[in-house]
């Protein structure tokens, strides 16, 4: 047993250092170099700039609470959509805290009635707290409010949503969804045009 | 449940079956130490590593020496990471200026990544520097996976060799798997992830002014390089707190699909490699059939429960399945499938929060880990765990027909059965023992976020995940405390190495035996009868012990849920 142990010391020590250099330093740095060269936009976070200001990432959600925008889902990341504190609520199915939160969120959608239930994703917190999407039903559910707040025709807003729905790839990869950053930017673009 | 959801599950299983043979053949070449096309490029690296560390890769080791070398290497790796985490504040590549971690967190994390568990008591983006992620953690993702595969090779040799005193060379097995399988695959995989939107940069974060004019800071880092090996090596430790639910780790449905496949790819391949090693590939397919049968039942239950949703929320006027803790781009089907895959394998990556699943939907991930993660399982660990159950199954079959049991040409005798039972008993003893301690001590009871039976499930899940080396969590539990970091660290170490040592002893004992040819009286270990027996043994021996704990946790939670009771 002791000779087994003695014979293991040098390989264990040297292999730890060699693999640390190869896998812990060379591998990630080489990929950083290649990634930055081949896919600079994605490798840096798929950021969108307006002039010099970064206004968002196309794949990470941001909080929308104003009546003029389509609302994002509740978020448990920090105080909401905190990019340094991704998290779900971790509330279980029988949690009173979950029940209270959902009740309060439903109350903010005044149009909720028994025959017009709120789509599930609109009042539940996502896993990351940074979900960039809501489902199409959750977007259509908000059309009237957004149209009223912006003084637009509901029909016009509804067709904007319909044009923003992304469908599952090959019919089964992913869910039908609406990217809120993109949809709300489109709303702003129309507003800017009408203001001119 | 939708047609689209079932199509996803069918496509997943279909592609997995198509991958089994090619992956298995590649692994078989490494098992035999044969030359691959990659040797032209990486051969010099391999030989250089051996020369510098004084290793002769052709020198065979008996099971004791194999075990001692493997253990010392893993111990060194754990020490190395402990040092990196404690010294983080003094080391470079720390753009957000994080200080070194506490002793108990560094201990827990070093053990966690060494044992292929990747339990995370911390939130990556607010605790660890880029250097800690790369140098402290990602190397374990490679080496703990390579160690697992090497150990599976050692056990295969036990079955395949006759009258032998050795089971291979640990260093050769581990190095070859790393260089000729994991590293090249990860380079391609990481490039695919970067192209799909996963960041790969040394920057720490970027400031955003949102459309509503609010300041948002997005954490960045070398994510893709770590993400690739996190999935392929069934590690599961995310760069970010939200793991594969974070848009920067898993941006869309295609990356999600590939991530699920990559959790299982090496594990299913190893069943084929086993068949090749013992000279009959049908032995491998029989094992895979038993695994997939258990897997599909689990997927069905979780998918059904999550799609049905939470009646407590339905009563408030909410329509649809359970979306709490799920991402819209994955939806219910891909979240349910991911949760079952990641716990059937010992991966532990999550794309949805298991804590917020419905009671029975969340019970399946828990139960998968309690079975010992032998349904495909972790890379290497899954197949050697399953072979322990196979040894018990032939023993039970032997008792029924009154003959000495045999498996793939080897007589299974009292020594092997005792060692297999010893290894299998570790799981319930430590999981239930530690859960009991945490459930009656103040430090333990301070952990759960949820009240009632769900809080108990959070504790049970934590110890199950630690001993099973899974790493997923009912993450409401506050685990970054001296009590939980310490207990869970010990649990992870026991769960890994107290199974490995009896398993290697079995390998040594089997290798020394001569070949017993199959006769008309032998119990066939390839057909449906055998597959059925395997499933039965896994469920009865692996699962039944945990039934009372499941009744106290998820089952009680479910009854409360359907009666509208909240806590």
Please describe what this structure looks like:
The complex is a heterodimer of chains A (196) and B (567). Chain A has helices spanning 2-38, 40-43, 96-108, 136-140, 143-150, 154-164, 180-195; strands spanning 47-50, 53-57, 118-119, 133-134, 165-166, 177-179. By secondary structure, chain A is mostly helical. Chain A has two domains: 1-44; 55-192, no CATH class. In chain A, strand 1 and strand 2 (53-57) form a beta hairpin. Chain B has 567 residues and is mostly helical. Chain B has a domain at 20-270. Helix content of chain B is 64%, strand content 3%. Chain B has helices at 3-32, 39-53, 63-86, 103-114, 124-127, 130-160, 170-196, 223-232, 253-277, 281-308, 311-314, 331-344, 359-370, 381-401, 414-440, 442-445, 453-467, 482-511, 528-543, 547-562; strands at residues 205-209, 215-219, 318-319, 406-407, 410-411. In chain B, strands 1-2 form a two-stranded antiparallel ribbon. Chain B has a two-stranded antiparallel sheet with strand order 4-5. The longest helix of chain B has 31 residues, at 130-160. Chain B is globular. Chains A and B meet through helix 1, strand 2, helix 3, strand 3 and strand 4 of A and helix 1, helix 2, helix 3, helix 6 and helix 7 of B. Strand 3 of chain A pairs parallel with strand 3 (318-319) of chain B.
Gist of the model:
Chain B: It comes from Sphingobium psychrophilum. Helix content of chain A is 48%, strand content 9%.
Share of helical residues of chain A: 40-55%
Structural class of chain A: mainly alpha
Continuous helix count of chain A: 7
Specify Rg of chain B, calculated over alpha carbons.
23 Å
Largest sheet of chain A: 3 strands, antiparallel
Mean pLDDT of chain B: 95
User: H/E element string of chain A?
Assistant: HHEEHEEHHHEEH
Shape of chain A: elongated
Q: What multimeric state do the chains show?
A: heterodimer
Largest sheet of chain B: 2 strands, antiparallel
Tell me, briefly, the overall form of chain B.
globular
Largest interface: A-B, 105 and 128 residues
Question: Low-confidence segments of chain A, ≥5 residues, pLDDT <50?
Answer: none
**What is the count of helical runs of chain B?**
20
- Major sheet strand order of chain B: 1-2
- What helical percentage do the residues of chain B reach? 55-70%
Strand content of chain A: 5-15%
- Total strands of chain A: the figure is 6
For the terminal residues of chain B, how far apart are their CA atoms? 28 Å
Strand order of the largest sheet of chain A: 4-6-5
Subcellular location (chain A): Cell membrane
Family (chain A): Belongs to the KdpC family.
Protein name (chain A): Potassium-transporting ATPase KdpC subunit
Main location (chain A): membrane
């Amino acid at each position: 047993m002791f000779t087994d142990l003695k014979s293991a010391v040098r390989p264990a020590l040297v292999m730890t250092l060699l693999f640390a250099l190869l896998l812990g330093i060379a591998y990630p740095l080489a990929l950083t170099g290649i990634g930055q060269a081949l896919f600079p936009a994605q490798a840096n976070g798929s950021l969108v700039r307006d002039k010099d200001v970064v206004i968002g990432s196309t794949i990470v959600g941001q909080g929308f609470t104003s009546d003029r925008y389509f609302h994002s889902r509740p978020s448990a990341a920090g105080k909401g959509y905190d990019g340094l504190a991704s998290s779900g609520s971790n509330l279980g199915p029988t949690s009173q805290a979950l029940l209270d939160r959902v009740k309060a969120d439903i109350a903010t959608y005044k149009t909720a009635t028994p025959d017009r239930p709120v789509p599930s994703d609109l009042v539940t917190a996502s896993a990351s707290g940074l979900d960039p999407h809501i489902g199409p039903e959750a977007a259509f559910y908000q059309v009237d409010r957004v149209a009223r707040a912006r003084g637009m025709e509901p029909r016009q807003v509804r067709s904007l949503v319909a044009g923003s729905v992304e469908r599952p790839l090959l019919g089964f990869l992913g869910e039908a969804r609406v990217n809120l950053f993109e949809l709300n930017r489109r709303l702003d673009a129309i507003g800017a045009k009408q203001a001119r | 449940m939708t047609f689209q959801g079932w199509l996803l599950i069918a496509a997943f299983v279909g592609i997995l079956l198509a991958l089994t043979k090619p992956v298995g053949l590649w692994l078989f070449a490494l098992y035999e130490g044969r030359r691959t096309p990659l040797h032209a490029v990486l051969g010099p690296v391999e030989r250089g590593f051996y020369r510098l560390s004084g290793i002769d890769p052709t020198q065979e080791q008996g099971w004791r020496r194999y075990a001692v070398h493997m253990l010392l290497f893993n111990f060194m790796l754990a020490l190395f990471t402990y040092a990196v985490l404690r010294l983080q504040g003094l080391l470079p590549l720390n753009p957000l200026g994080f200080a070194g971690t506490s002793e108990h967190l560094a201990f827990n994390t070093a053990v966690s990544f060494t044992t292929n568990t990747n339990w995370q008591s911390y939130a990556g983006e607010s605790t660890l520097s880029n250097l800690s992620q790369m140098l402290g953690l990602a190397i374990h993702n490679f080496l703990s996976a390579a160690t697992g595969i090497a150990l599976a090779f050692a056990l295969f040799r036990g079955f395949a060799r006759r009258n032998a005193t050795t089971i291979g060379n640990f260093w050769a097995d581990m190095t070859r798997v790393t260089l000729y399988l994991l590293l090249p695959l990860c380079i391609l995989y990481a490039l695919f992830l970067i192209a799909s939107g996963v960041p790969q940069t040394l920057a720490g974060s970027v400031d955003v002014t949102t459309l509503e004019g609010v300041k948002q800071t997005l954490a960045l880092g070398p994510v893709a390089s770590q993400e690739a090996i996190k999935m392929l090596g069934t590690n599961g430790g995310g760069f970010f707190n939200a793991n594969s639910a974070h848009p920067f780790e898993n941006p869309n449905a295609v990356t999600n699909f590939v991530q699920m496949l990559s959790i299982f790819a090496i594990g299913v391949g190893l069943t084929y490699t086993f068949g090749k090693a013992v000279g009959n590939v049908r032995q491998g397919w029989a094992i895979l059939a038993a695994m997939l049968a258990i897997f599909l039942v689990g997927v069905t239950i979780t998918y059904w429960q999550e799609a049905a949703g939470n009646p407590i929320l339905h009563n408030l006027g909410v329509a649809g399945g359970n979306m709490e803790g799920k991402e819209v781009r994955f939806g219910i089907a891909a979240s349910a499938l991911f949760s079952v895959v990641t716990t059937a394998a010992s991966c532990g990556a999550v794309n949805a929060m298991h804590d917020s699943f419905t009671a029975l939907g969340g019970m399946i991930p828990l139960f998968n880990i309690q079975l010992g993660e032998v349904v495909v399982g972790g890379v290497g660990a899954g197949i050697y765990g399953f072979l322990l159950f196979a040894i018990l199954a032939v023993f039970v079959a032997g008792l029924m027909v009154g003959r000495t049991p045999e498996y793939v040409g080897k007589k299974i005798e009292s020594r092997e059965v005792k060692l297999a039972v010893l290894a299998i008993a570790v799981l319930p003893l430590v999981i239930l023992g530690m859960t009991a301690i945490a459930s009656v001590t103040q430090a333990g009871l301070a952990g759960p976020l949820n009240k009632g039976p769900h809080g108990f499930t959070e504790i049970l899940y934590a110890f199950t995940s630690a001993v099973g080396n899974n790493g997923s969590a009912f993450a409401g539990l506050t685990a970054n405390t001296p009590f939980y970091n310490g207990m869970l660290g010990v649990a992870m170490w026991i769960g890994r190495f107290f199974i490995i040592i009896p398993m290697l002893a079995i390998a040594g004992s089997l290798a020394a035996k001569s070949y017993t040819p199959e006769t008309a009286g032998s119990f066939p270990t390839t057909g449906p009868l055998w597959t059925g027996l395997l499933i039965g043994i896994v469920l009865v021996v692996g699962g039944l012990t945990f039934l009372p704990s499941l009744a106290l946790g998820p089952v009680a939670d479910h009854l409360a849920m359907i009666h509208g009771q909240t806590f």
